[in-house]
Amino acid sequence: MKIPTKPRALPMPLWLQGVLELGQAAVISALLVVLPVAAVWFTGGFADRTAESAARLAGQGWLLMHGVPLVLHFPPGVAGAEAVSGLLRVVPLGLILVPLLLAWRAGRRLARASYTDQLWQALLGALVTYAAIGAGIAYVSGTPDASVPLAAGALIPPVAAGIGLITGAYREAGAWSRLVGVDFAAWVGRASQHSRWAGSYAWSVIRSGFIAVLVAAGLSATLLAVAIGLNWAGIAAIYERIDGGIAGATVVTLLQLGLLPNLALWTLSWSTGAGFALGTGSSLTPLASTVGPLPALPILGALPAGTLDYGYAALAIPVLGGLLAGWWFFREGENHFDEWLVLRSSRRWLTATASTLALAGLIGIAAGLFGAAVALLSRASLGLGRFTDLGPDPLALGLWLAVEVAVGALVGHALGPLLEREPRRR
């Protein structure tokens, strides 16, 4: 007797799986905004807002979490005799990690479900879905006070989602050849020996510059944590003056956690000497601070005030980052430029000096470019008055960081032979 079997279900199309994966990520990231806004509304924190208005505010918060700017509309009398508009722009690096990590997880799942030549279907479906969700939220969350351009709502949220998808898929695939179907190792192998040496040298310089910025940013984050701890009494006093209840304090705390990486990068700019601004005409540097009235954000109670006697000691942070970068290059990189100079001159003191100076300068330039990029990413604007200029100047931070990292890289690479010397055998 033939036993009846259950018919096999049709496999889910890859584009539909991408739709479900990033749709799920959008819903989970939206809860991070909807729940605090709902808590404040239910406790009476939005006395003049209806439930629909609070929902629109949550939609604007979801878009801001992805770095989408809001166009604020100010009525006459608020910013002058006539109605004006301003651009509220900020990329909360702490909050944007949530959709990025959710997309990273989705990218891994999609890579497991796809063949190499089919992955684009899942990624395309996922990104189109996220763009449609962003455009839809931008359309329904507009108010007379704030609006979002549909193009910005559709194009900006998929940036973070796309980064997460691609890195997650690469993490699952283990190699770019499996991800895009191109064997980069074979492509590089077909290049000439001089091209491979130049490429290897340039890649090591880029990684060294990234390490310098990463170390300096980590030390700056530690410095920020120490400043918060030392000024905790002032921060608590600002919380008490806000008096927003449990729900209000929770929302303010989540907002500060979302901006904490931005503030760490501002601290990095401060430690280089370039400083940063908290409004037009203000300046905070290791030597002196000049600020005007500030919004009642508790974490701003950790800002340094007046002249700092030992503020110049913070300049050691980027130099130390450069020192470790130069040491790392000595350990991991291959100084092909030094080898090229040796083939053309027998004066070792000249070739060693020239190659070390060139290496330090290139690492400094790479670090400066990375620093300018993160400074540009961390900047913000509240869209009105003097608070349209918040954060570091990318050009100033890039120049200061390039010089200081170059000095540190010069010392670190010069000390490399001493630090890596093997102990004598007895």
From TrEMBL:
A Pfam family: DUF6350
TM ranges: 22-42, 54-74, 86-107, 119-140, 146-166, 210-233, 245-268, 310-330, 350-377, 397-419
Q: Keyword Membrane on this protein?
A: yes
**Coiled-coil intervals, chain numbering:** none
Q: Which InterPro entries match?
A: DUF6350
Keywords tagged on the record: Membrane, Transmembrane, Transmembrane helix
Entry keyword Membrane: yes
Q: What is this protein called?
A: Uncharacterized protein
Q: What organism does this protein naturally occur in?
A: Arthrobacter pityocampae
